[in-house]
Amino acid sequence: MIARDRNWLLIFATCVALAIIYPFFAGGYQLTVIRDALIFGLFAASLDFFWGRTGILCFGHAAFFGIGGYIMALVTLNDAIPFGSLLGIMGAVAGAAFVAAIIGYFLFFGGIRGSYFTIVTLAMGVICQQAAVSWSSVTGGDSGLIGIPPIEFDLGGLHVDLSQDLPSYIFVSAIVAMTVLALWLISRGRWGTVLTAIQDNEIRAAALGHNAPLRLLVTFVLSAAIAGLAGALYVCMAGLVAPDLSGLLLSTEVIVWVAVGGRGTLLGPVLGAIFIQRAQQTISSFNPSLWPLLLGCVFVIIVFVLPDGILSIYARLKGLFKGRRRAQ
Amino acid sequence: MSDILLQAENVGIRFGGLQALEALNLTVRDKELCCIIGPNGAGKSTFLNVLTGTLRPTSGSVRFLGHDSAGLPLHRIARLGIARKFQIPSVFPNLSVEDNLKVARWGAPSPVRPVGELLELVALGNRAATLAGELAHGQKQWLEIGMALAIEPRLLLLDEPTAGMTPQETLATAQMLLRLKGEFSIVAVEHDIRFVRALNCETLVLHQGRRLRSGPFHDIESDEMVRDVYLGRR
Amino acid sequence: MDFLITTLLNALTLISILMLVGLGLAISFGLMNVTNLAHGEFVTVGAFAVYFVQSIGGSFWLGLAAAPIAGAVVGCILEFAIIRHLYSRPVSTVLATWGVSLILQQGLELTFGLGAKPVTPPIEGTLDLVFTVYPAYRLILIGIAMLTLLGVILLISRTPFGLDIRTVIQNREMAEGVGINTRRTYAIAFTFGAAIAGLAGGLVAPLAIVLPQMGVNYLANAFFVVIVGGVGSIGGLVAGSVFVGGLTSILNYQISPSLAQAIVLLAAIVAVRLRPNGLFNGASR
């Protein structure tokens, strides 16, 4: 247990160190590529926080990413609202959390778990994307909203302006690192332990005095809030928001990032997001409709060959060597 | 009469056309130990479900500290001070023994016993870091008793605590309970006569959903009718 | 008056389709506990079968006969290759069947190209129903759907295979004990559900926009039918279809389709909260 914590912190520190030295070797464009990938990594970590700790799969997590993105866009594009960037981020987080709270309340307190939850969230994702397309007077319809300004605010005498590549990269990296560390601390502490207990045997946990539906709800809301934050960050960096950001394909991709990176590790999904997006860009440059096809294959392969993610290859090899040594 | 913790009066349960329980009475005083025995199908588990409030009786009433607990959510029942050990060992297999006990303590309104003491009480001091799923069957049962203790109950309800145990483990379990006697009330449902003999306490004998006999165990044991029921002559 | 009848018939069309799509899902999700996210693709495959037969000069009716066969073939392959290996791993089933769904969608797109596929109905024109005039094909659709449902009820309640299915569903171990090959029964039941969904796809093809991605909407709605109606009975299936289909049809007149969908979703969630075992089985817990 303690060795596992130490390993995690070691990998985390290595990643942070790599993120710090990266700007010394990379140009502006490469920085923005990694920056955007990191935002999706944050999104993946938010799904993993819920799925990894509760074992319940949310199949419409992009809905929260999209809600965050649209709220951020609408707030910052409205000149009448002062402190656009800060209020936008707060509104994005609160909006995603609010939707998750309503849906989660009915589902968790209604005793909906497992596959039922997956399906209802799947439908939620479909509907969010449709709403984004058809409510065009607000969302801009199929083409979305463009011209979203970069994040800029003053906080306690500190002026933050993320219109340049390097500051935005540093800002995003710092937020991702802090959030992942915080989520890790939560999930290895009391909160996460009780969640594991609920996942193992919810009735037993309840018989010990734990309010399981409430705990699942709060976890889901927190997960959605972080997804909303990621959405808000993304639209400011990209400068535009479109219905795809709340769509089924993104919901699907984030599941792959988590599954490939290793469910329940929080760090794995971030790395999974970065690497798979690199692969996606390369493959899509040949033929755009090839990517969903490959994505489908990846799903099937994960299930049958690598149920514990890519990092499990290392663990398996280690186990193999250990087994061999013992055999000798 | 203020030391009455749990009082079941004239409890009856009907499942459709089947009268599962009929006119049962049970009074558990504070810090008292008692057993409910009976052959398979006598209605022991059903009666226990009524006592914990998970099943609402179709007639009669159950009051815990004067309150009606029927139909409350599980976690509320636990917070009233009723702990329950299920018949099938239900520990959290993916958590360590220590974490299992921690989770139990966190659920309690005011836990007293530290985890270390709980570990010693249920004889699992040297297995603290083991995943609960890897424990032997008897040890899982003990861990579950430990988890029930962790919530500092007023009343501990045990559903066949020795099911599947070896004779030695059964005896050790009885001794464990005798050590705890006097700290809170314990109601154990059993069909293993050796275990009940080792506890030697007030005993209620059920047969086909009705009270057959009740009284101190040594009186019960010598009762002709009880022997008949257990040997299947009736 | 005629407006009312038209709305009613529109609702009946949607309800019929939902019942057929939901039937397969009620078997796999409700009874076998398999969450098959590729179920919508059975509908797509059925619709494409009709398009394909028409495009090589065949009649609509020939295409409609090919639709359930296409659904059955895809369903059978899916069961053999993937689902039967994952009965004990629910989350893996979700992921793998979603993968298959993506592969099928892109496979169809690569084979048949981008864009909506035209399918012509066998009968154009309308029928005068005294109170209202209504498209003739829709009436045929409702009729075929009802006949199919009746056939399924008879199949399950009157034939030896239906008895096998009912036995396996009630107690798998017991069924194995009395010599029923549960694996085969599951495979046949799953394939059967896929075939009915394929038939639904074929029926709906002249009315819908035939696209490789068309299955997702049917998937979500069919799941609602099963969840809201409750699993395990034809009555639940009908109740769920009437709830989802009826509500959608009524709302579609008042507001935009996507808002209507959102409201149906919310209503379904609330219904499930109030009646966790489904509308039909709500009384007993």
Q: What can you tell me about this protein's structure?
A:
The complex is a heterotrimer of chains A (328), B (234) and C (285). Chain A has 14 helices and four strands. By secondary structure, chain A is mainly alpha-helical. Chain A has one domain: Orthogonal Bundle (ABC transporter involved in vitamin B12 uptake, BtuC), CATH 1.10.3470. The longest helix of chain A is centred in the N-terminal third of the chain and has 27 residues, at 28-54. The two termini of chain A are 27 Å apart. Chain B has a domain at 1-81 and 155-161 and 182-234: Rossmann fold, CATH 3.40.50.300. Chain B has helices at 44-52, 74-80, 97-107, 115-121, 137-150, 167-180, 193-199, 217-221, 224-231, and strands at residues 4-15, 18-29, 33-37, 59-64, 67-68, 82-85, 155-159, 185-190, 202-207, 210-216. Chain B is globular and about 45 Å long. The termini of chain B are far apart. In chain C, 73% of the residues lie in helices and 2% in strands. Chain C is mostly helical and 285 residues long. The longest helix of chain C is centred in the first third of the chain and has 30 residues, at 2-31. Chain C has one domain (2-214). The chains are: A mainly alpha (328), B alpha/beta (234), C mainly alpha (285). Chains in contact: A-B, A-C. The interface between A and C is large, with 44 and 46 residues.
Considering the chains and any ligands shown, give keywords for the structure.
heterotrimer, A: 328 residues, mainly alpha, ABC transporter involved in vitamin B12 uptake, BtuC, two-stranded antiparallel ribbon, 77% helix, globular, B: 234 residues, alpha/beta, Rossmann fold, 6-stranded mixed β-sheet, 4-stranded antiparallel β-sheet, 10 strands, 35% helix
